[in-house]
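Lab meeting, item 3. Inverse folding demo.
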């Protein structure tokens, strides 16, 4: 999320309210509220320290799986140039992310995307190969996105 440059302090996110019956105390009614906020900073170093690398890596994995799906759909429609561009752009984005947050999972995803790109030439050869390519890459994208 981007809340504007130079934001410092706390950003109010909202309030969570809970009403329940406490079954461990004969169904006694309990309730509570909690105000939620998130710290904000313009300090690049502070932002990097607060980053959860596993979340950043997972987001990159899901996004690249979506791109593999988009490339498979492009192949289904016969647009091989679009499929190649989508895969190349996704590889570049993942390689940039890999430099910032090295991860074996990102390395694997990069390899998968490069393999998908190299398979485009075979898919171009016949409708049958294109169909096989599309099914395989959609299944791979689904698996990688989980």
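The presenter then showed the designed sequence:
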């Amino acid at each position: 999320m981007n809340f504007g440059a130079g934001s410092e302090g706390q950003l109010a996110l909202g309030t969570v309210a809970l009403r329940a019956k406490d079954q461990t105390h004969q169904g006694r009614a309990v309730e509570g509220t909690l105000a939620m906020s998130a710290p904000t900073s313009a300090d690049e170093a502070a932002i990097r320290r607060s980053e959860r690398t596993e979340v950043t890596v997972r987001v990159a994995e899901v996004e690249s799986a979506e791109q593999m799906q988009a490339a498979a759909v492009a192949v289904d429609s016969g647009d091989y140039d679009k499929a190649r561009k989508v895969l190349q752009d996704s590889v570049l984005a993942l390689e940039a992310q890999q430099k910032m947050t090295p991860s074996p999972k990102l390395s694997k995803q990069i390899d998968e995307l490069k393999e998908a790109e190299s398979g485009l030439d075979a898919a171009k050869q016949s409708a049958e190969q294109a169909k096989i390519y599309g099914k395989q890459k959609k299944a791979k994208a689904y698996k990688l996105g989980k």
